[in-house]
Amino acid sequence: MRTDRLDLDQLALLRELADRGSVTAVAAAVGRTPSAVSQQLKALQRQVGVPLVERVGRGVQLTDAGRALVVGAVTVATALEEAQAGWHSFRGEVGGTVRLASFHSAAELLIPGLLHRLSRYPGLQLDTFDQDVAEQAFAGLTADYDIVVAHRSNDVVVPDRPQLRTTLLLREPMDVGLPLDHPLAQRASVTPQDLDGEAWIVPPPDYPIDRVLTAIAARSGVPVRVVRRTTHLPLIEKLITAGHGIGLLPRHTSAERAAGRFALVPLKEIRAGRVIEALSRPDRAARLAVRTVLDDLVAEAATVCG
């Protein structure tokens, strides 16, 4: 490996390739042609003297050497952002644009209060985006957004994500949503056995709720009968209200709409819930504006739990 100083722009492109998986995707993200991106990556590879990228099928992936360089690229980018953040903090400058993506029900729960908190920073603009994806897909969104509000089941091992900064926001219990005239609606709690034979309205597979349904079936010994799937929480609530089935609903998010429409009954014997957390690239999390939004997200989540 040559000892010449590595080019930060080329390192950044290598990192984008690690996150996005193709030169074409990197080119689209950085506003260059695929040819220009390829040339820069080849120049970096010539400089270090070892292969950084290898073909796998129709795509490419980084070699061990490439991944090691990406770790260094993240460290350097984070240090630069921390230095910039320290200077802005010294000058009392909290400003810029922060791009935040969130799945729908978390946005409903957190964004209104977050915007109220951020109003004390006139120079800071928060742009929000809807991204309701499968549990495993949230990490990939950090390539395009400064903050990604994600959810995962609270009964799974926390994934190893060394290239991401994770900020815990809250754990939200999931209650059984029942029509008001359902025989179980007035119960203080229900068990999996109480729910045998019910028609369920739930999100698609690969969402946190699916693991709870599997646990319910295992505990009761009866397969869960799913009659409809949708990610749209208000639709699930309306279908439950109209008597078309039951579902698992997020306690804090659905509470305001429950009164007079449907019942929220805690589920016994199974710890049903979801963890809501904020994901960011470490260098973006180091930005003063992003840190400010993250701090206020944590504060807003604490009021929800309280």
What does this structure look like?
- It contains 10 helices and 11 strands.
- With 306 residues, it is an alpha/beta fold.
- The strands form 3 sheets. Strands 3, 4, 5, 6, 9, 10 and 11 form a 7-stranded mixed beta sheet that branches.
- The longest helix has 28 residues, at 64-91.
- It is globular and about 75 Å long.
- Residues 6-63 form the HTH lysR-type domain.
- GO terms for molecular function: DNA binding; DNA-binding transcription factor activity.
How are the SSEs ordered, and which strands pair?
Blueprint: H1 8-20, H2 23-30, H3 34-48, E1 53-56, E2 59-62, H4 64-91, E3 96-102, H5 104-118, E4 124-130, E5 147-153, E6 165-179, E7 199-202, H6 208-220, E8 225-229, H7 233-241, E9 247-250, H8 251-258, E10 262-265, E11 273-280, H9 282-286, H10 288-305
Parallel strand pairs: 3-4, 3-5, 7-8
Antiparallel strand pairs: 1-2, 5-11, 6-9, 6-10, 6-11
Helix pairs in contact: 1-2, 1-3, 1-4, 2-3, 5-10
Short summary:
The chain has 306 residues and is an alpha/beta fold. Helices cover 43% and strands 23% of the residues.
Give the structural class: alpha/beta
Shape: globular
**DSSP strand count:** 11
Q: What separation lies between the terminal Cα atoms?
A: 55 Å
What is the architecture of the largest domain at the second tier of CATH? 3-Layer(aba) Sandwich
Tell me the helix content. Answer: 40-55%
- Along the chain, the helix and strand elements come as HHHEEHEHEEEEHEHEHEEHH
Please compute the radius of gyration using only Cα atoms.
23 Å
Largest sheet: 7 strands, mixed
Number of helices: 10
Give the tally of structural domains.
Answer: 3
- The residue-averaged pLDDT reads 91
Q: State the CATH topology of the largest domain.
A: D-Maltodextrin-Binding Protein, domain 2
Proportion of beta-strand residues: 15-25%
InterPro entries: LysR_HTH_N (IPR000847), LysR_subst-bd (IPR005119), WH-like_DNA-bd_sf (IPR036388), WH_DNA-bd_sf (IPR036390)
Keywords: DNA-binding, Transcription, Transcription regulation
Organism: Nakamurella leprariae
GO molecular function: DNA binding; DNA-binding transcription factor activity
